[in-house]
Amino acid sequence: MSGFGEREDGTFLLALSHVLGVPELLRVLEGSGLALGDALARLLHPSLTHGEPLPESVRAEAAAALSKVRMRIPARAGLLARDQARRPDLARLLDPLFAPRAARPPADAPRAVGCPSKHEPPGRLRELLPGYRILQLIRDPRDVLVSRFYHDLAHVSPAMLPLFAGRQRDGTLRQRDDWATAYFAARRDELLAYYADFAHARLGPDVRLVTRYEDLLADAPAGMLRAAAFIGVAPALREPAGGFDLGAHCERFAFERVTAGDAAQIDAATGERRNSFLRSGNAGDWRTYFDRRLAHDLGPGFAALLVLLGYERDGAWIDALPDRAPRAWDFSRLRSRQSLVRSFRHLWEADPAMQERFPNPTDLLAADGGFLGHLVREARPEVMAHRADLIALARLWNADTRETVAF
Q1: Cα three-residue angle 63-65-67, rounded to 5 degrees
Q2: Is the pTM of this model over 0.90?
Q3: At which of 232, 258, 284 does a domain end?
Q4: Cα–Cα distance for residue pair 136/122, rounded to 1 Å
Q5: 13 — pLDDT class (breaks 50, 70, 90)
Q6: How far apart are CA 388 and CA 383, in angstroms?
Q7: Among the four residues 2, 52, 160, 392, which has the most C-beta atoms within 10 Å?
């Protein structure tokens, strides 16, 4: 699993984060007969059959996942009040998902699962959830590469570091001359693997609805209604009296509102939020960073992917690129402390006592140093070695060391 976390239940965590963030959806789903709890459980345990009673162990796993997901919902988004406890009432959220059903839902009851662009491929979801309709969100792969680069600067792990730098004979780090070829080739291969079955016949229009991120930016309510019609819940979205105001919901999650007050460092020239997880909500950002050499390095397979997804008709866009991109890749956005925490987060996830002691392992402003301080004080050799490498990279790249909880 990639794109959301290092754990294998990344899709489950993602889905639960949306349930937690938009509790109104529970009412819509309940009224539409969607077996969301069954779908989530099957993502964790594919061996479960539809309608089979869910074992208590699944509920326990869901509770554990929710306890982690709660920290992925920033108070600034308006989803949780700023003074609200960061531990939500798990029982209240889980009961609608795992309550026993009096009878199996009708065979024609709508069932659907979302498929974000960097999580389970639709073909895999088709295997896990036969009979479910699939909503697949895609984005221009060139913008995905730009976004992923800046995202990765906050997640530089020991395995990722060699893509950017090599070790000289004296042990010091030096940036690779061919870092772009190495790094973007790895990310390109991930995209090609994800979209390998995009045109498969088993993912026809009766099974999957493909929605482009760019179209949602242009008209979010229209995109949501199209998706709702596809899975059979459009009436519930059109009736504000049912507890769900579609227009207000889209406005609630507008980029400007979600990022308001997140203490991000704003780039005066571009408006980008340098140290925010939500760096830029624009489409077409790739034009600022792509040049002809990068496009050629990505190869014909990447160019063919753009045609497959409908973002280009042919490879003519490559010839239109400049010899030198308007902007250079900004390595000063490296987040060394954030990267250290992310690289060893698995230690926190494996230790309930540590989770209780440090409810938010990525809080870099904790008075006692938080989980980051614990990692340094414990001085494990692998932790300290990576810390030294990150410090060296920060110096090499003149990295901006101001890091905030917002990232």
Answers
A1: 70
A2: no
A3: 258
A4: 7
A5: very low
A6: 9
A7: 392
